[in-house]
Amino acid sequence: xxxxxxxxxxxxxxxxxxxxxxxxxxxxxxxxxxxxxxxxxxxxxxxxxxxxxxxxxxxxxxxxxxxxxxxxxxxxxxxxxxxxxxxxxxxxxxxxxxxxxxxxxxxxxxxxxxxxxxxxxxxxxxxxxxxxxxxxxxxxxxxxxxxxxxxxxxxxxxxxxxxxxxxxxxxxxxxxxxxxxxxxxxxxxxxxxxxxxxxxxxxxxxxxxxxxxxxxxxxxxxxxxxxxxxxxxxxxxxxxxxxxxxxxxxxxxxxxxxxxxxxxxxxxxxxxxxxxxxxxxxxxxxxxxxxxxxxxxxxxxxxxxxxxxxxxxxxxxxxxxxxxxxxxxxxxxxxxxxxxxxxxxxxxxxxxxxxxxxxxxxxxxxxxxxxxxxxxxxxxxxxxxxxxxxxxxxxxxxxxxxxxxxxxxxxxxxxxxxxxx
Length: 421
Prior knowledge:
This protein is mostly helical. Helices cover 83% and strands 0% of the residues. The chain is built from 17 helices and no strands. Helix 1 (3-33) runs antiparallel to helix 11 (252-284). The longest helix is centred in the N-terminal third of the chain and has 34 residues, at 37-70.
């Protein structure tokens, strides 16, 4: 078994445990709040910190920081990390302040089916949740430092701790208002605990610095910005399609979010770990490793097709077994299953999209990835905005177009169908 696939298995195992607990969080959330206005608000509270960090910072850390630092001598890596970490923490602090200052605007953008009077009592909750944004940014930085060292399991363990803490607090409270209050406490505490674990595991050089560092030049800044935009657009897509679906009425946002969480499990447990582990290997390779790429694509597509088949074959019985309890009735579970059976068609496209995207990142063509994602998002979101009830179909179109463009621009197709090396 190759080093890449061994590392992928270790990383996937750590991520898988975190995602299973994350799925348990969605089951608990659905059982406690069902498909309701309070559930919509809970979804925003739980996802906003990591979504903002993912939109504005994670892409740069993953696609520019890790490859740039791996190309530097070990003695010079810390200086580059300190500079980027300092700037990243300033940005995350500004994001937290922006959310805390304008919670009404945030709720208005993300829960447009709810009246301001429904969200106003939860402005303090959103302000407290915003306090965990810097914790999330620092945890992602610590994970990037771990990846520079060639260790990949730390991010998965951090996810386990984070989601398990939130799950524990979701069990508290007997009314919707009390549940949301305890959930907010759990979000802040979970962010702090995850950061403590990640810092202990990776021991990053946290000392602030704004001094120019080796490998941090104009080209790096350009790649960092392109990485932020390209991954930020992918994160934005999830928020955008979820928000469009939520415009259909109270509770529509939460049921779409439950379905999206199930779709994301194979993406985050299998596809993203492989892409993360492939990035350093492709960055250091003089020529694309054709054999490795073929094995990666074949494995990912096979698992994706299996996921589509299983969703249609046993999807609804499994969803009823998992979700039909507490505040979730048969009608709500049927609505969740119907959305999932559309979203799952994006899975094969996500598989090739991420592998081709990793090739583009390794070749420092992050700007191309940014353009491809923008085109896919424009087309998919355009369909969803015209027909809000087809938000799930718009998401599939987004994944398909982005995958096709990534494959074409990365030159992945000739590597897959050409003669054996």
